[in-house]
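tl;dr need the bound structure. longer version: we got a ligand (adenosine-5'-diphosphate) that a collaborator sent over and nobodys looked at where it sits. i said id run it. heres the input, straight from their email, havent touched it
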Amino acid sequence: MHGSRRTFLHDAAVFVLSVAVLALLNLVWVIPTIRATYSSASTLALATVERARADVTFSLRAMQNSLEDAAEEIAYDPARKKIVLNRVLKYNPAIKSAGIAGIDGRETFILDRFRFITPADFGDYRSAGSFSSALAGAVTFGDLYISPEQEPHITLFAPMARAGVIDGVLIADINIRDLVSAIHTPEITQSHVYVVDENGYQIIHPNVSAILRRPNFLSRPIVRKVVRDRATADGLAPEDRYVSEDGVSAFTVGMPIAIADFSIFFETPRSVALAGVRQVVVFAGITVLVGALALFLIIRARNRLQRLNVRSVDLLKENYEVGKMLVRRDLELTRANARLEELDEVKSEFVTIAAHQLRTPLTGIRWSYQTLLEEGAEALTSVQRRVLQGGLGASLRMINLVNDLLNVARIEEGRFGFHFTLQSPFKMIQRAAERFRKAARDKGIEFKAELPPAPPRPFFFDEEKMSLALDNMLDNAVKYTEPAGTITFRAAEEGNILRISVSDTGIGVPADQVHRVFAKFFRAGNALRFHTSGTGLGLYVCKNIVEKHDGAMSVESREGKGTKFTITLPRAEKPPA
Ligand code: ADP
């Protein structure tokens, strides 16, 4: 749990680091690209506003010129005022009415495009600042005003001078609605051009109702900058941005208009003007994320590999240590083994010597008993005879034991001495059968011999040793079978193999011990109880003899049911090595 948490934190740190590094690397191209996008948005907007400014200037200038001409003409020939003003209205559709005021500011004449004029329509411009400016000799635009018909207007004042003396002012009302149509407005969603006067009031907007609301935009820093400083604003300064009346964050550029101290602006939603920036940022973001993911995967794989490496190195070290230990153990074992072999040799020597030394006196004792029993038979009482027979039996068992011990010692020392001769085993088998038929009968056991009808072909074997082996098998069968049991002795030639088996219906070997019957000194528990005498060496010797003939010996047994020993002997061209 702890480990996996640590791995997670480590991975997270790697990921964050990858993002940071890639983000930094991306800045190299993202920043210039964003800058370029901004400046091209600005350039485009400036071009748009410039064009609109040209349109507006052209329209205003045209009206201004035509009024100046008219003012001059009337100044020289006041009688022509009606003709002249009629011409002005004819050629300037935006001018709704034109009139003349004396230097006292009182209007004395008006020509209106749509209405008849009554004296009540004559205005009094004495206090109007623009009127004073006109009297000072400048063509001046007045403030925006909304006519009773809800039309936005501005008034243009042109001084009427004759030979440098001003004796009146020509006054024209311009309907902004007509001016608006002069402005080229780009067909961009939510983008438009607007014009504000020197006080920040919006005087031109494509939507006339926006003009009628008479908004003042001096609260917008960019408007202040252009209106007050008469400077062009490229929209790139952070303070140039504002939230438009539609509640949209606006990208705006602006520039002053030479005529009338107006200022013109082009406003477009930032999301439209700077869509490129958003695309760049999104693209850069995706690049960073994908890159970071790849980097993260690579780093993680590398770390895993490293950890694996460390682990392998540890394992190798461990392995090396274990190897060293094994070599040490092996050495110890080899030494111990050598020592055991030495001891075994000493033991074998002792057994051989002891057995040899025992055999001569034992044979002597056996013959003494036998001679006494055979030659002094008449003189013996039945008790004496029983004692002597017991003694003879014991000495025979002892001789068997000593013989078994000597055989085992010889086998182990490799000097069991085999003499192979080429002959048919038939006689040997028959003789063995005869020997045990009698022993079995004496014990009340049925003895069946199933031997081949004709002598098997000759092969190489050591008759004495093989007889010993057969005797052992048959002896065991008699020994471990109770009276009324059956022993079956079979021999058969199967191709190049001679198969000899001895089966009985005796006590059998417990299932968990069968695998040990050929081991030295092994005696099964039931055998120990059933037949107290026995060395546990017979089958060991047997198996050794069979194997020296390149044969094999096997056992099948069920406790209480019986046992079957089988030996198979191959027929070879030459005697076994
Ligand atoms: P021994 O007969 O002197 O005990 P063996 O080496 O001939 O020694 O046999 C080893 C053991 O194998 C016996 O003690 C006995 O437990 C078992 N054994 C051998 N032959 C038979 C058999 N025919 N029936 C039952 N058990 C047998």
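gonna send this back to them w/ a short note. The first strand starts at residue 95 and ends at 101.
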